[in-house]
């Protein structure tokens, strides 16, 4: 290398242009194959001054590669760059400004501003376009510089509009720009929140034609905008239904694209099918697997097929699945067998056919097919008790071939569960016992339980067996879980066999029909990100590295007039644009946090005594039930602002438990007012509640006051007192609360938004002098201004005061009423407000100042909601 | 915040060595690409290959083309569908520049590849990706067109970004090809599992100036699309247009109006979801006598109009991988054994409608059997039928208006081809 670079050096300094160019080419060739040619830096830079475009491009390329490692030398190139930005040839001007933006060396960036300013006003549109992208690059390197230098204004001049978010301009531009530009415009539109359904519809009408674009990314971005704005359209309107029908064909067409495009489409369709199954419910056939589909496409199609399976198409689906189960790819075959089981559980009418299909598959004796089939049959048994047990004999024939823990455990569970119908159940289970210590924990635990079940059912013949397993589990095992379970059974059996029977042989809760559903709030967020990596991985967007702008958590918009505004910060107009860069816990952390918490059954407090716990007895009696009743009727109680009751946890997501509720603040205390309804067929007991860490440290003051079992179709009203002494973690949105509720069936999670007024404390009135001093003291950039529109009120102060927003002073300036107000949050944060009301004008102006300005938008939402209630 | 795409783009050879790369945003370390190939091999071994892979914060979005991997890296929540569309565009542009896109063409043309990478994307934003336009200012022999290259084609920034001004032809003509490709899947019992028609209208435009074109199709096709006419058997499920077609105009009055790109392009494609029977019906009997032989009998029948003829018919019949010593007998055409694909290919140059032909094949099997599980691929049929479309689509007119007022001739051709009719045996 040494000698070759010596020759190159000589050639680079050759007088002849052609020789020079050939030399630079050789340098680039060496660079391309990974050789370090940085030592030639000065010689290459010397070649920069040329009118040969190709040579210049090569030198620029070299500079981009090595400038970072040789910043001091890179400076040598600055003069040439600046000169090239004024070259008569527009290609060279553009090339220079483009390359300068790519060299992320501070010293070069400093010199970039002047040429960039000129290029933004260049006579050639190509140069202007390149310069505009360069502003984005500069913003990424140094956002402050872009602001200071006024480049944003220059950009606005470029589009000849002072308002860059002019929606109409964007929509018109859709018809005039390149396919790539259309994608960016559509992605931009998807961040916009229409004022009302009429605007939403008119945007949809202008976006819909993009569904016919040949570029699949344009189509998917258009789908994103439409899926988001659909939320704002009334469900019973003709337009809504027309739009739904229009979405299906383009989604199907994406499946005739390249395999990678199909994959992205399928992952997104998986979300769309969960959000709005009606769009593709007629199209199940297009998800049938093709022989030559790549495996990643096959697996995704299978998943969507099961989601779309219904009584209407189950025959076709089963015929397909049966075909798949005889293919060669092991993973695919397993998933197909599992899918048959899921169909049985989902579509009751098909269960019988599914079971017989599974039996046919078991007859093939293909080892992994048999094992997978046995695992799903266990679930079918649980879903339809006392229906298909006649096949147990066939299953038992395959006992010896099972070598996977899942399958062994499933088989053992079946034998234990139906021990009374299997003549040789004891022999079968005993055969597993021989190699007990070689089994996986899962198998050991299942075997232990199965033998205890057997013993409870046939005590006379199996005493020896149960003793054997108990001693294996408790005395010969190092596994604490196994030992503990062994001891529990042992105690139970030895002290109270009747109770043991009740516990071990108790009725089992139903298993849910749908599996692998994405948590609804995440689903909504992913719908807002259709086409992006997050929606391909099905991971929250916060799991990715933030851009220089921070992450805006996106929510589906909410239709006005039907649900409160507190749910959706984006629907609140001006507040939506506030940047909130902050750390958001990823989904994994959340679950981890919640699961690690001790969700034990509630401390068994006798019914009477719980009423004596401080806060609780304040509620006992009239006011509590009165308030709650008024909440239920969806009314406001006087001036006190209360929130609509909402369904937080629908029964389908929680195995029959429905939780609806709202938050309130009464006499200085916070409450979570909830109604638990049992929509399952079995009773529910052992309720407990736990909150994840949240921004305001909210935790329940008492355990859930539910002490009697909740019978099927019964409901109970609960007022859970809250306080704010719990652990604090900043959430996004700030008022987000993640809740886990446990009962005897399972643990369920939901998240909800706490309306901020619940945190407005009673002693939120600031002294006049303090107010003035504080207002001055808080920096001006913390002041945020909002519009409260269409407000017709007389008693503004009174209404606000009932919600702990205190008016400190009132002035009349030039015919306008200025109200100065303060409020304080439970965590001691003060918010200072100036409310400007012009007589005859229904639009109020609200200025908020706060040392923690991120709360301002939530406070604004409360103002808006209270004044309009 | 703008939507994000690729941070960098790499072209790798089959062993994972970087042939050429371009760093667009500088927010992902370029050495991260070293993990790509390891991940790929790992996933391949596990049989869980996926077009998106990640290592730490970095995500790899990749496609494979001949003996190359094209990989985009990002650490943001990028628009994945944009990235794939862009990678396929890269393949298209490189192919038009170098005829074949493969390892050698990248190595032989690295200077132009760098130039193109620089021009196709800037800071993660795809720019001009139309190779016709790019060829006007990025040429393969830089020195030859020195003068011309001092000008940027205005097309790059025009609203009409796909056609340059000042194009001249002595004779103004447009060739319109209507090509329909049918996909039918038949299961072992002979019932049609799925069938669809994918149609495409391709143009070869040789017109001067900036002509305004309007394409008229028989009404029922397009009205069916809006759901106004459900009576007829054929309905277009979905239509996709080249970016030159005014989509809002089509949405409002069903007019297909556009300024065409010069030369060849696909103007539109459509999908018809209708029950069609296979045009060439296949019946087969495959008898396997373990340890000795396989006997194959295939019957093919042309189920289309007697006046039509299917050309270049190829019927591909899978055989066991350990089969040997083939013997064939055909009533027409000839059969050939392709051992590397485990196939017998029966070719028939021309196959008239209504006719029926037979092929018999005999293979020996080794006495020691192959125990590996083999897939059961379907019998695949390929053919072309000229002057005929299954859907009945017709070009009614093509209006060509250019301000110079020249007369231009449109030519129309119809072809139906098999997108692979398949039948499981």
Automatic annotation (TrEMBL), chain A:
Q: Which UniProt keywords apply?
A: Acetylation, Membrane, Protein transport, Transport
Beta-adaptin appendage C-terminal subdomain domain spans which residues?
A: 760-868
**Thylakoid recorded as keyword:** no
Name where it's found: Endomembrane system
* Occurrences of domain Clathrin adaptor alpha/beta/gamma-adaptin appendage Ig-like subdomain (ranges): 645-751
The record's InterPro entries line, in alphabetical order, gives: AP_beta, ARM-like, ARM-type_fold, B-adaptin_app_sub_C, Clathrin/coatomer_adapt-like_N, Clathrin_a/b/g-adaptin_app_Ig, Clathrin_app_Ig-like_sf, Clathrin_b-adaptin_app_Ig-like
Family, according to the entry, reads as follows: Belongs to the adaptor complexes large subunit family.
Know the name of this protein? Adaptor related protein complex 2 subunit beta 1
From TrEMBL, chain B:
- Provide the leader sequence positions: none
Q: Which CDD domains match?
A: AP1_Mu_N
What is its subcellular localisation? Answer: Cytoplasmic vesicle, Clathrin-coated vesicle membrane; Golgi apparatus
Q: Which domain of life is it from?
A: Eukaryota
Q: What is the membrane topology here?
A: Peripheral membrane protein
Domain (MHD): give its ranges: 171-425
Pfam families, alphabetized = Adap_comp_sub (PF00928), Clat_adaptor_s (PF01217)
Gene Ontology CC: one annotated term: trans-Golgi network
Alphabetic keyword roster: Cytoplasmic vesicle, Golgi apparatus, Membrane, Phosphoprotein, Protein transport, Transport
BP terms from Gene Ontology: intracellular protein transport; vesicle-mediated transport
* General function of this protein: Subunit of clathrin-associated adaptor protein complex 1 that plays a role in protein sorting in the trans-Golgi network (TGN) and endosomes. The AP complexes mediate the recruitment of clathrin to membranes and the recognition of sorting signals within the cytosolic tails of transmembrane cargo molecules.
Family membership, please give it.
Answer: Belongs to the adaptor complexes medium subunit family.
Under what name is this protein listed? Adaptor related protein complex 1 subunit mu 2
């Amino acid at each position: 290398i040494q000698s070759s670079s010596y020759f190159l050096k000589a050639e680079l300094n050759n007088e002849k242009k052609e020789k020079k160019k050939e030399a630079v080419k050789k340098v680039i060739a060496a660079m391309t194959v990974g050789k370090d040619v940085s030592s030639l830096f000065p010689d290459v830079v010397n070649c920069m001054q040329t009118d040969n475009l190709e040579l210049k491009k090569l030198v620029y390329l070299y500079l981009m590669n090595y400038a970072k490692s040789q910043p001091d030398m890179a400076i040598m190139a600055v003069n040439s760059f600046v000169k090239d930005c004024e070259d008569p040839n527009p290609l060279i001007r553009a090339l220079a400004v483009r390359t300068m933006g790519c060299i992320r060396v501070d010293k070069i960036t400093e010199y970039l501003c002047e040429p960039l300013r000129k290029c933004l006003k260049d006579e050639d549109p190509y140069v202007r376009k390149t310069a505009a992208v360069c502003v984005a690059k500069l913003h990424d390197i140094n956002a402050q510089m872009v602001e200071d230098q006024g480049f944003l204004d220059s950009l606005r001049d470029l589009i000849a509009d002072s308002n860059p978010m002019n929606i109409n301009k964007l929509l018109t531009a859709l018809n005039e720009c390149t396919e790539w530009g259309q994608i960016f415009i559509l992605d931009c539109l998807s961040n916009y929140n229409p004022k009302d359904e009429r605007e939403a519809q008119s945007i949809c009408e202008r976006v819909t034609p993009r569904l016919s674009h040949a570029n699949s990314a344009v189509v998917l971005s258009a789908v994103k905008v439409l899926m988001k704005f659909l939320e704002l359209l009334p469900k019973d309107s003709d337009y809504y239904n027309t739009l739904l029908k229009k979405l299906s064909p383009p989604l199907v067409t994406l499946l005739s694209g390249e395999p990678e495009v199909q994959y992205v489409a399928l992952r997104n369709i998986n979300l769309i099918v969960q959000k709005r199954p009606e769009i593709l419910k007629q199209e199940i056939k297009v998800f049938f697997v093709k022989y030559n589909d790549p495996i990643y496409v096959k697996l995704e199609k299978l998943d969507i097929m099961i989601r779309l399976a219904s009584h209407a198409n189950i025959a076709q689906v089963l015929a397909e699945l049966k075909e798949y189960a005889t293919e060669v790819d092991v993973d695919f075959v397993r998933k197909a067998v599992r899918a048959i089981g899921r169909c049985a559980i989902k579509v009751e009418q098909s269960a019988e056919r599914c079971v017989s299909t599974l039996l046919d598959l078991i007859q093939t004796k293909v080892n992994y097919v048999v094992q997978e089939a046995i695992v799903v049959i266990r679930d079918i048994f649980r879903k339809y008790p006392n229906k298909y047990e006649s096949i147990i004999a066939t299953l038992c024939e395959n006992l010896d071939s099972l070598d996977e823990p899942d399958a062994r455990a499933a088989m053992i569970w079946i034998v234990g569960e139906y021990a009374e119908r299997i003549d040789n159940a004891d022999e079968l289970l005993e055969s597993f016992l021989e190699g007990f210590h070689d089994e996986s924990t899962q198998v050991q635990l299942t075997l232990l339980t199965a033998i205890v079940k057997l013993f409870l059912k046939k005590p006379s013949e199996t005493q020896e067996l149960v003793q054997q397993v108990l001693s294996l589990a408790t005395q010969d095992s190092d596994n604490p879980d196994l030992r503990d379970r062994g001891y529990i059974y042992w105690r139970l059996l030895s002290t109270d066999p009747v109770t043991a029977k009740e516990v071990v042989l108790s009725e089992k809760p139903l298993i849910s029909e749908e599996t692998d559903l994405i948590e609804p709030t995440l689903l909504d967020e992913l719908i807002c990100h259709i086409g992006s990596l997050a929606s391909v991985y099905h991971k929250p967007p916060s799991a990715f590295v933030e851009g220089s702008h921070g992450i805006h958590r996106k929510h589906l918009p909410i239709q006005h007039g039907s649900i409160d505004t507190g749910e959706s910060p984006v629907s609140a107009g001006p507040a939506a644009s506030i940047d909130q860069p902050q750390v958001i816990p990823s989904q994994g952390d959340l679950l981890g946090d919640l699961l690690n918490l001790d969700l034990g059954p509630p401390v068994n407090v006798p019914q009477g005594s719980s009423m004596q716990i401080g806060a609780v007895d304040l509620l006992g009696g009239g006011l509590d039930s009165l308030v709650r009743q008024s909440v239920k009727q969806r009314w406001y109680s006087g001036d006190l602002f209360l929130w609509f009751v909402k369904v937080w946890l629908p029964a389908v997501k929680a195995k029959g438990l429905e939780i609806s509720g709202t938050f309130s603040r009464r006499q200085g205390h916070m409450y979570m007012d909830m109604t638990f309804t049992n929509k399952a067929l079995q009773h529910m007991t052992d309720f407990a509640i736990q909150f994840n860490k949240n921004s305001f440290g909210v935790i329940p003051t008492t355990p859930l006051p539910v002490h009697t079992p909740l019978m099927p179709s019964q409901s109970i009203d609960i007022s859970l007192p809250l306080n704010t002494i719990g652990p604090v973690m900043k959430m996004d949105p700030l008022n987000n609360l993640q809740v886990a509720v446990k009962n005897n069936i399972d643990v369920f999670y939901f998240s909800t938004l706490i309306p901020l007024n619940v945190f407005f404390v009673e002693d939120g009135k600031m002294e006049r002098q303090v107010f003035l001093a504080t207002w001055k003291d808080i920096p001006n950039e913390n002041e945020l201004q909002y519009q409260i529109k269409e407000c017709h009120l007389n008693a503004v102060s009174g209404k606000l005061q009932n919600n702990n927003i205190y008016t400190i002073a009132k002035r009349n300036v030039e015919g306008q009423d200025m109200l100065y107000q303060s409020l304080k949050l439970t965590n001691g944060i003060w918010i200072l407000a100036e409310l400007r009301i012009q007589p005859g004008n229904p639009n109020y102006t609200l200025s908020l100042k706060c040392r923690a300005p991120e709360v301002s938008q939530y406070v604004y939402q409360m103002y808006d909601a209270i004044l309009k209630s | 915040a703008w939507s994000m795409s690729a941070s960098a783009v790499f072209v790798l050879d089959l062993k994972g060595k970087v042939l050429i790369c371009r760093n667009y945003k500088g927010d992902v370390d370029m050495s991260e690409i070293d993990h790509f190939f390891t991940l790929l091999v790992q996933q391949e071994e596990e049989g869980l290959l996926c077009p998106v892979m990640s290592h730490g914060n970095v995500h790899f979005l990749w496609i494979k083309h001949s003996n190359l991997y094209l990989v985009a890296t990002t650490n943001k929540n990028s628009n994945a569908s944009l990235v794939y569309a862009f990678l396929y565009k890269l393949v298209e542009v490189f192919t038009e520049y170098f005829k074949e896109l493969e390892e050698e063409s990248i190595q032989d043309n690295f200077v132009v590849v760098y130039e193109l990478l620089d021009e196709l994307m800037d800071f993660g934003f795809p720019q001009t990706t139309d190779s016709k336009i790019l060829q006007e200012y990025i040429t393969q022999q830089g020195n030859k067109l020195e003068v011309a290259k001092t000008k940027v084609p205005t097309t790059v920034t025009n609203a009409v970004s796909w056609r340059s001004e000042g194009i001249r032809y002595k004779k103004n003509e447009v060739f319109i090809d209507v090509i329909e490709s049918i996909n039918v899947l038949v299961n072992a019992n002979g019932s049609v599992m799925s069938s669809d028609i994918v149609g495409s209208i391709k143009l070869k435009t040789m017109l001067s100036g900036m002509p305004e074109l309007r394409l008229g199709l028989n009404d029922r096709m397009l009205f069916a699309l809006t759901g106004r006419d459900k009576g007829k058997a054929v309905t277009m499920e979905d239509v996709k247009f080249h970016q030159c077609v005014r989509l809002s105009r089509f949405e409002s009055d069903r007019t297909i109006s556009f300024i065409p790109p010069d030369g060849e392009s696909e103007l539109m494609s459509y999908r018809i979801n209708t029950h069609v029977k296979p045009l060439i019906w296949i019946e087969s009997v495959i008898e396997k006598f373990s340890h000795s032989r396989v006997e194959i009998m295939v019957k093919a029948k042309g189920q289309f109009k007697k006046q039509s003829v299917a050309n270049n018919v190829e019927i591909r019949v899978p055989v066991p991988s350990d089969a040997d010593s083939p013997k064939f007998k055909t009533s027409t055409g000839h059969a050939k054994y392709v051992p590397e694909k485990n196939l017998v290919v029966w070719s028939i140059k021309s196959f008239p409608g209504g006719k029926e032909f037979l092929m018999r094949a005999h293979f020996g099997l080794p006495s020691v059997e192959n125990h590996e599980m083999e897939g059961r691929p379907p019998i695949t049929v390929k053919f072309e039928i000229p002057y005929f479309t299954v859907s009945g689509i017709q070009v009614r007119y093509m209006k060509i208006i250019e301000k110079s007022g020249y007369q231009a001739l449109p030519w129309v051709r119809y072809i139906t081809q098999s997108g692979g009719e398949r039948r499981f045996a």
